[in-house]
Amino acid sequence: MVPLTSFPLLLSVSLSLLTTTTLAQQVYISTDGPSPRPSCTSNCSSIARPKYHFTEFSFTQTETYRTATSRPSPTTTVTYAEPYEKLSGLVPGLSTTTWGSWNPNATAQATDTANPYGNAAWTSLWVAANITNFTGTGLYTTTVSPTPLPTSELVLPPADYFGPTDCYTFPEDFIFGVAGSAAQIEGAVFEAGKAPSLMEVLAGESDNRSNDHVTNENYYLYKQDIERLASIGVTYYSFSIAWTRILPFALPGTPVNEEAIQHYSDLIDFVLEKGMIPTVTMFHFDTPFQFFGEGNSPRNDAAIGYVNGGYQNETFEDAFVNYGKILLTHYSDRVPVWFTFNEPLLYCDNGVSVDHVIKAHARLYHFYHESVNGTGKLGIKFNDNFGVPKNPQNESDVDAANHFNAFQLATFANPIFLGIDYPEAYKITIPDFVPLTAEDLAYIGNTSDFLGIDPYTATVVSPPPGGIAACAANSSSAYYPYCVVQETSNIFGWPIGYRSQSYVYITPKYLRTYLSYLYNTFHSPVLISEFGFPVFGEANKAVEDQLFDSPRSQYYLSFMSEVLKSIWEDGVNVMGALAWSFADNWEFGDYGAQFGVQYVNRTSQERRFKKSIFDLVDFVAARTVGR
């Protein structure tokens, strides 16, 4: 995920290209008296007096305790494509090599200067990236063998007094798990042949921001992290692969890092060995440094997203497709679910960026299903804090919400899911958008097996001063490019939900409406690819208080309850939900916004389960047939 404050979305006043429109999210109906109690029987209104009496007191209160049910060892092997040995012909001419580690303070220098892809050339990438706040290495320099967890760590914490009361179950094939991304958890940034990415460059200035150099050291501790998740009963483990590890020189025709290929292969194998199922994101913001240069700095303001991710570079599309093909040929036999891009809007600079993302995604979809003949699923995941109208009975507010949601979603989803043109919200705002031909749309349309969405929260939307159209035509407007006013309170001044450390508010009922909007607008199964809650002030609490994270439990259980209602009452195909994050991690320059369901000691790298992961896993297990 990305630390956002709240962000605007798209759909414009003209929604003729979409199959449905979004109506008001709620209607305010005035009523008097106390809240109703629908679960009570008629005796709730009885005027009978209670009968008081004395009894002999004793300490007889009992408490049931349980331990988590670990994942069982697999008894069968499932494959989703041929192994690499049979697919290697799809990526001809690959060469592999390995590189070492980089330390700006090292005195020894590489001598293979004649090799354009040798250690000297690899070192020059780091020198060019100008990392000025080098913090050295972490505790580990090799993969750590996992240690089984003692039963004492798997005892469920006391339950909150109020909890879900539904009787629904999840479909048998529902995907439930936890997620993380390479830049936010791996560490070992300068080791094992990894090259610099946008993440190191943005956090590489000598300011007060934390960097990603060490983070959780998951690169070396991945087996222990997976051991812990399997022990507590998590089914799916979703992670991203670092492009700059697989291809340090980024471009087609450059050598593949054999050490990285083997690392992620071992990671996938260990996930399977522990009875879990891997899902892979190819790209989670960590653009290789090679896509930046003179006139295209990562520090340039982006016209669309929050950061210039370099996607507009003329070589990006082909390079990404080449990288994706390497991943798909090496790992598709064992990975059933793939995401090409994570939240692409947020790092798109301009119209060319969007064009490259959409076309690269479509090319990999066709490659996976037509060349690899993969039987799993391949899709893409989007950001979008669901825009809801400030006053649902005000047409201008409803139009603003539609514009907001269209700009962020339909810009990508119209071509990819429906095979139709960009929404007007995008075209009236981004003047350099690349037109899509009928041939483009025929090739791009229906190239995702699901719609991945990261619906962390909702945001209240109304038109900007002067209106949407005037804002869209004025790139210097304070509201550009989303061209709406965003707030976090309703028309009565109340916050829309319980507030977190960041932009997230607990808004479960809006989630249900959002899922219906997505499914009925884009006609695709919906996979919640991230959702999570950084408890307010958690990082400043004593560790024991951090572990009893009831607000996060409330967030997860309320959201999952609404997912069940969406499935059973609204008929929405919600494929699954992946909680963010499986542990506290680096949040793009910050460790204070803790999304994790595990605490991480930044000195010792010790992990400890929080209450929320027990509550969430137990909620799903109790509602899964056969458990």
How would you describe the shape? Answer: globular
Mean pLDDT: 92
Share of residues in strands: 5-15%
Q: Which regions have little confidence, pLDDT < 50, spanning 5+ residues?
A: 3-24
Q: Helix amount, in percent?
A: 25-40%
Which sequence of strands runs across the widest sheet?
A: 2-3-5-6-7-9-12-13
Distance between the termini: 31 Å
If helices are DSSP runs of H or I spanning 4 or more residues, what is the number of helices?
A: 17
Q: Strand tally, please?
A: 15
- Major beta-sheet overview: 8 strands, parallel, barrel
Radius of gyration: 25 Å
Class computed from helices, strands and strand pairing: alpha/beta
Can you characterise this structure?
The N terminus is likely disordered. The protein is globular and about 95 Å long. An 8-stranded parallel barrel has the order 2-3-5-6-7-9-12-13, surrounded by 5 helices. The chain has a 3-stranded mixed β-sheet with strand order 8-10-11, sandwiched between helices. A two-stranded parallel sheet has the order 1-4. It is of the alpha/beta class and 627 residues long. The longest helix has 24 residues. β5, α8 and β6 form a beta-alpha-beta unit.
List the helices and strands and how they pair.
Layout (H helix, E strand, L loop, with lengths): L83 H4 L8 E2 L21 H11 L45 E5 L2 H4 L12 H5 L15 H15 L3 E5 L2 H4 L9 E2 H16 L3 E7 L32 H16 L5 E6 L8 H21 L5 E7 L2 E4 L5 H24 L5 H4 L10 H7 L6 E4 L3 E5 L5 H5 L12 E3 L20 H15 L3 E3 L14 H5 L2 H20 L4 E7 L17 E3 L6 E3 L1 H12 L5
Parallel strand pairs: 1-4, 2-3, 2-13, 3-5, 5-6, 6-7, 7-9, 8-10, 9-12, 12-13
Antiparallel strand pairs: 10-11, 14-15
Helix pairs in contact: 5-7, 8-9, 14-16, 16-17
